[in-house]
Amino acid sequence: MATAYGHPAAPGHGGDRRDRLYLPPEQILQTFTAYMDSEATIPNRAQFEANDAKLRDALFVTDIRPLLRPGLDYDVGRAWKTVHHALVRHLPGDHWKGGAA
Predict the structure, then answer these.
(1) Does the predicted model carry a pTM greater than 0.70?
(2) Angle CA(65)–CA(79)–CA(6) in degrees, nearest 5?
């Protein structure tokens, strides 16, 4: 079964790159920041982290399934941890301290 987690095809990780795309997190963050510079409101780290409450919303979690290829082993919680570790924690601003989102 295929997996959506991690990036074993990333440089230095081996694996089959035919169905995966690897972009360095720094490049993704640079592109995101450049794009958001043109927006009136730029979300910070705490705002992204506050949204992790959505992971407890069954409708939000199951809404992604039709967008994924059949047979893909996907866990939204694990995906969030991967994105948070690689990207969100590097966004400007303090981490979310809890409370209302």
Answers:
(1) no
(2) 120
